[in-house]
Amino acid sequence: MFGNNNKQAVALNKSKSRNGWHSRVGRCRFQHPFRAQEPAIRSQAPRFLRYWRGNLIVIALLLTVWWLVTFVPAYFARNLSEVFLFGWPFSFWVAAFGAPSAYLAMVGFYAWHMNRKDARLRRPDVDA
User: Fold this and answer.
1) Are 121 and 51 in contact (CB under 8 A)?
2) Which residues lie below 8 Å from residue 12, measured CB to CB, with a gap of 6+?
3) What is the pTM (predicted TM-score) of this model?
4) Short-list 122, 12, 14, 110, CA closest to 61
5) 8-12, 32-36, 101-105: which has the highest mean pLDDT?
6) What does the mean pLDDT of the chain come to?
7) pLDDT value of position 6
8) Cα–Cα distances in Å, from 85 out to 91, 94, 99, 122?
9) C-alpha gyration radius of the chain
10) C-alpha to C-alpha distance for 34 and 47, rounded to whole angstroms
11) β-bridge partners, 85
12) Angle, helices 45-75/99-122, rounded to nearest 10 degrees
């Protein structure tokens, strides 16, 4: 039962080389992606790191705005209910129109911002 699989495992262990694993089908190397690339792409790695660091900052800011829009009006809902706008409490207007509008604005801003950053990253002469 285990004989055939064991022979294959021994054959694979014997065929291990310094550059990676070799099998009967072909050669498969496991390396870090930047180490496998040519030096021109490797030299652009700081641009990609700055791009993602900026992306994470924008995401953190938008998540903060999302938290504020979602939880601050809910926390102050009783105080906002004292103010009426067109016959309805202001907390109703915030929940019905303000928060969804803010969410759409955040999605639109993120799409616009990332399109600009992606276009800058595609140009080789401009630093991201």
Assistant:
1) yes
2) 21, 23
3) 0.59
4) 110
5) 101-105
6) 75
7) 54
8) 10, 11, 16, 48
9) 28
10) 13
11) 88
12) 170
Between CA 101 and CA 115 the distance in angstroms is 21
Phi-psi bin for 54: left (phi > 0), alpha (psi -120 to 50), beta? alpha
By C-alpha distance, which of 99, 100, 36 is closest to 71? 99
* Structure tokens belonging to residue 104: 């759409």
Residue 88, H or E segment: strand 88-89
Q: Is 25 exposed, middle or buried (0-12, 13-18, 19+ CB in 10 A)?
A: exposed
Place of tokens 């829009």: 69
pLDDT digits (tens, 9 = 90+) for 62-105: 999 999 998 888 888 888 788 888 888 888 888 888 889 999 99
- Quick count: other Cβ atoms within 10 Å of Cβ 69? 19
**Does residue 94 contact residue 88 with C-beta atoms inside 8 Å?**
no
